[in-house]
Amino acid sequence: MTIFISGGCKNGKSTIAEDCCAALACGGPLYYIATMQAFDDEDRARIKRHQNSRAGKGFITIEQPRDLLGCLEKSDPENGTYILDSVTALLINEMYSPESFEADKDAGRRTAKALEQFAKSVKNAVFVSDFIYSGAERYSSYTIEYMEALALCDRTLAACCDAVAEISGALPTMYKGELPI
Amino acid sequence: MHLVTGGAFQGKLEYAKNAFGLADSDIFECSEDCAPDFNVRCICHYERYVMYCMRAGLKPKTAFPEDTVVIMDDVFCGVVPADPELRAWRESCGRALTACAAGSKTVTRLFCGIPKRLK
User: Fold this and answer.
1) CATH number assigned to the domain comprising residue A29
2) Domains identified in chain B, total number
3) Nearest Cα residue in chain B from A174
């Protein structure tokens, strides 16, 4: 089963996603695809919070900040249950590099394709993204480019996953299918 | 009329084209800088028309013929902007959406390409 989860920040998306994974695993290996690269103390604190939250839940961590399909050969896709938290961080790593100020304009299309391929290649997967599309602020073209690329990834996953949920206040609103929890 | 809303890049126009059988020639894309052409079946980026009205001192039209499809970004969500014009725009859009929704036969919100019927 594949699940796509999005919603606002600090609303319980990761916890719900981890609980879904635990419910789906049925004794198979649980993989946590770690996408975030730490650049400062704020990043390190956020990573620590997520690590503490999944401690004891039995996840094997795969460091995969980019090239998502690369984690298939490091794991057991036929039997595995994967959590990708988050699509947002994966796309940032694909789109921007510390060496360049230029965004990789092909990153959205490439990442969306990899996500779809990944979803079709594994037994179970839960994808977590962030809903960043509403508001009246005028963003720079740099930011809008990223929003558009993330929206392509989100729409691709929402179309191919078995269940789609928006999380608000740790409560799911279902757009497709049901959660296994 | 039919109202389609949701965040930016959520697939609202694509949904409207399929759901209401719209051709590209049926769609008018609003601009903040010029008066709209409402003699079409689909009014896209209605939120830009709201900004045009604010600047021109007009009240936005919120009643449209039965088969008209109005598409609007939900710019009234999110943080209150520091810029006074954007603040006023955000509120005008919220009021205009509510008025449009009241007179609409259907209201649909798109989330990551998936429609949810609100009315």
Assistant:
1) 3.40.50.300
2) 1
3) B116
pLDDT digits (tens, 9 = 90+) for B61-110: 999 999 999 999 999 887 788 899 999 999 999 999 999 999 999 999 99
Verify whether the Cβ–Cβ distance A164 to B7 is below 8 Å: no
Pairing mode of beta strands A171-176, B2-6: unpaired
The answer to whether A60 and A31 are in contact (CB under 8 A) is yes
Alpha-carbon distance B97 to B68, whole Å?
15
Residue A148 belongs to some domain of the structure: yes
* Residue position matching structure tokens 């509510």: B98
> How many structural domains is chain A composed of?
1
| Distance (Å) from the alpha carbon of A58 to chain B's nearest alpha carbon | 31
For residue B71, with 0-12 CB atoms within 10 Å meaning exposed, 13-18 middle and 19 or more buried, which class applies?
Answer: buried
Please report how the helices B46-56 and B84-102 are oriented relative to each other, as an axis angle in degrees rounded to 10: 120
Measured in angstroms, the CA of A88 and the nearest CA of chain B are apart by 14
Q: Tell me the helix, strand and coil percentages in chain B, rounded to 5.
A: 35, 20, 45
Parent domain of A16: 2-176
How long is chain B?
119
Does residue A181 form part of some domain? no
CB-based contact B112:A132 (threshold 8 Å):
no
Domain carrying residue B11: 2-117
ipTM of the complex: 0.79
Which B positions 11-30 lie with beta carbon below 8 A of chain A?
Answer: 11
Q: What tokens appear for B36 in the block?
A: 């709209």
Q: Residue B19: which CATH number? A: 3.40.50.300
